[in-house]
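Notebook, p. 212. Picked up where the previous page left off. The plan for this session was modest: take the two constructs that came back from the sequencing core last week, fold each one, and keep the raw output in the notebook itself so nobody has to go hunting through shared drives later. Recording the first one now, exactly as returned: residue sequence, then the C-alpha cell string.
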Amino acid sequence: MSGHSKWSKIKRDKGAADQKRSKIFSRIIKEINVAVKEGGSDPDGNPRLRLALNNARGANMPKDNIQRALTKAKDTEALQEITYEGYALYGIAVFIECLTDNPQRTLGNIRSIFNKRGGSLGTNGSVAFMFDRKGVIRIPKGSFDADELQLEIIDAGMENFDEHDDGYVITTMLEGFSSVQKRLEELGIEVENAELQRIPFETKTLDAESGVKVLKIIDFFEEDDDVQNVFHNLEITDEILSFF
C-alpha cells in the first residue's frame, strides 16, 4: 500500500478519534448544496448529487442530516468553487479546493496560512500541471473475489486496484470515474467513499522531521471551514508515518 493510502487511512482514523465528524459532515453538506444547485434534487439524474449522497452514507451521516441538507439546499445561498495553488515549506506543491460563500474571506485565510507557515501562494496554474486528476474509490472487503472484481471493472476505466487492511482502493482514469462507480453498483459492491483527486505525477521526498512539518501545514489548510480538499506532492514515507 502506498504512503498516500496509509496517510489517508491514518487521517480518517485520527479524525474519528478527534471527533472531527462534524467537519466531515459540513463538507459533505456543502457538496450536496452545490450538487443540487447544479443539477437538481433527483440523484438518479444528477451524478454529482448521487456521489455526494453515497459519500454521506459512507461517512455514516445520519439520514435526518442528509434529508435536512437536501431540503435546505434549494434555499441556501449558492457556494462558489475556487481553487488555490502554491508552495509549502521545502518547495512542496499544494493544490487547494474550496467551496465558499465569501471568496475574499477564503483568499485571506489561505494567504495567511501560506505566509505564517513559510509557504507562498501562487497564481492559477503555478502547480496544477504537476497533478493528474483521477478517481479514487474505496470499498470495504466483502464476499467478492478481488481478482474477479478487477476483471469486471478494468474495461470500465480502472487503472489500479490496491489492497489495504480493511478494504481496497480503486484508482480510475478521469473519464472512467463514473463508469467504474456504475459497474460497482451493478455488481452490488458497497462503496465507502468515491472522489476525484489530484494525484502528483512525481512526489518529493523529505526527511521525516521536514515531512511532518509539511503535513502540519496541510492540517492548517484542511481545518479551514471553506476548504474541501488539499493535494500535495510530498512522498509520505514510513519514517514520516511513524510520527503519527
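Okay, moving on. Second construct, recorded in the same format:
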Amino acid sequence: MLKRVPKLWTDTIEDHRRAVREATITAAAALVAEHGLTGVTMSGIAEKTGIGRATLYKYFPDVGTILLAWHERQINDHLAHLADARDHAKTPGDRLPAVLNAYAQVAHHTHDTDLAAQLHRAPHIAHAEQHLHRFIRDLITEAIEAGRIRDDIDPDELAHYCLHALTAAGNLRSNAAVHRLVTVTLAGLGA
C-alpha cells in the first residue's frame, strides 16, 4: 500500500512539496508495475496518491515527466548503491571488485523494457553515465597505483571495458553466472 500524502501541510511548504513529488513518483512506478507503461495516467496517479489532478499538474506537466523523474531517482539510487559498496570494502584493494560486483548485480536485476529504452534517451542519462564512468575510472586508477591491476592500458579504456562487459549481466539467468562474468572481467584487468 502506498503512503498517501496527508491533506494537511507538513512542517514546511518545502517538505510538503517534496512529499507530493515523492508520492507522485512512487505511485507512477507502482502503476507501471501493475498495468504497464500505457496504464499510467494522471487520473490513476491522482487516485493512487489521494492528490487532486490539478495539484499534480502544478508539479508535473504530464505522465512522461513523472516517469523521467522516477527513472532519475532510480539512477541516483543505483549510484548511491555503488558508492556504498566502495565505502564498505575492507581494503582499498577490495573496492574495485566490490563495485564491479555491485554494478553487475544492478545490471542483472534491471530488466530492459520498452520503458527503459525510452527513458535511457533522456538527458539525465548522459550525466549519470559520465559520473559512473569517472567513478569506475578512479577506482581503476587507485587499483593501478596499488599494483593490483595492469598499468599498460589507460584507465579510461579499462573503465569502458568493465562497464560494457558487465552490462551483459542483464542477459544472464543466475547469480552464479553474474559472479563468473565479474571474475572474467577482473581477470581481464589482470586482477
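Notes on construct two before I forget. The CA atoms of residues 27 and 54 lie 16 Å apart.
Flagging for discussion at group meeting.
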